[in-house]
Hints:
By secondary structure, the protein is mainly alpha-helical. Among the domains are: 294-407, no CATH class; 434-492, no CATH class. The protein contains 20 helices and four strands. The strands form two sheets. A two-stranded antiparallel sheet has the order 1-2. Strands 3-4 form a two-stranded antiparallel ribbon. The protein starts with a helix and ends with a helix.
Amino acid sequence: MLYRQVKQTNIRAMQRPYKGMTILLFMHIQIAVIQARQGKKKLTNVGNLSVSYLIFAANQVILHISPDNCMSRYRKNFNKAIACILFFFSVSFSNAVLAADGEALFKANCANCHKPDADYTGPALKGWKDRIPSPDWIYKWIANPAAMNDPYSTALKSKWKPIIMSGFSNLKQEEVDAIMKYVDDYTPPAKTPDATAAGAPAQSDNSLLFGILTLVLAVVAFILLQVNSNLRKLTDEKEGILRSEPVPFYRNKAYLMAGILVLFAVGGYLTMNAAIGMGRMKNYQPEQPIYYSHKVHAGVNQISCLYCHGGAEDSKQASIPSVNVCMNCHMAIKEYKGDPIIKENGQVVNGTAEIQKLYAYAGWNPATGQYNPDNNGDGIPDGARPIEWVKIHNLPDHVYFNHSQHIKVGKQQCQTCHGNIQEMPEVYQFSDLSMGWCVNCHRESKVDFYNQKDSSGNKFYSIYEKFHNDIKNHKLDSVTVEKIGGTECQKCHY
């Protein structure tokens, strides 16, 4: 739809250039907003937009640089050529938007369980065309995998049992095509030493470059418009047509109105973005008093999250483990002998020294293998003090979130909200934890109903008899959290 709109706009723009310039402005602002929401660089489309305006300005200059009798026979063909050029730019803009759809859809719907190039909770998706039995199989499988009974589907379910993929009947065929195209075109990012240590690839920011390019093109476009105005005046004077002196640009109502509209659109977008992002702390990674690597503990050593964060299963809070929980292991483990731990800045972490910090907080003497004496008589070893961990995942005071409801009842994995915690050398906030992010999760997450036949599932949801009967009678294949009231305001807000 957006592609057709841009195409039609460019054609109409040739008939009424100045009106077309205004229309094209808002069309490309629309595209830029879409790209920004899909995680693209905010200024990548601005340079392309400036090029389009530059072509418009050049068109007007050329058309008015000579009298009408000299240019009239060329105008028709020249306008067609300009229309083709603008159409080419519009196609490139639209393709950029469409190319981003696959990545955005994959991250929103598939990334929790799948990786393009490696097995994860589910199988690696790359090379899917060579494995599926028929071209239309992928659409049926994604829409409702539970209903698929062909030999390949049965073998796939058996291999990944007991994990059962949720259906995504909300995805359209073109959206599935975009996702699979992203998977086919996916190439692993090149790793640098710093990126490897941080667990994420280094990314370059070209915002400054695009900003400079946009400014240069805007200045050139403005100069061309001024040249156009002066040449038209000279042409008219040569032909004996009297024309008043041109109005300075700072007093020209057309320029002022265009500037106000641009500032209003850009300022409104930036203000709205800033307001929406206010209080969100995605990628927040504070410095902790002791360097603690979840990759070493939860990843390499396979320590369950619930061993340290026992409150997550039984209470609202996940709870931060006390020093005594750490000492259960580190009474025996006094030095670090694993692979080198490297910070994002390239600094190598001395794991043994970090363990010694833990002993200082616990009041433990590793030489004697005992706690320090209690000379104060307060039941606390001398020198012992609590570790002042810095909280990473923060929610506003008006938001209610219950860990046990999600872990014990909802059967959700910690990685759903916290990311691949077992791969993080140092923990950071994985998601923005916004209202929209939570609501989308409730709309997509399937309820694990109790099955009396094999005693599987969750008895907590046994009260929803209607949904049980609908599933039993094949009226529904699954029930989302939204259908049992998971998007009601009072569920998450006091």
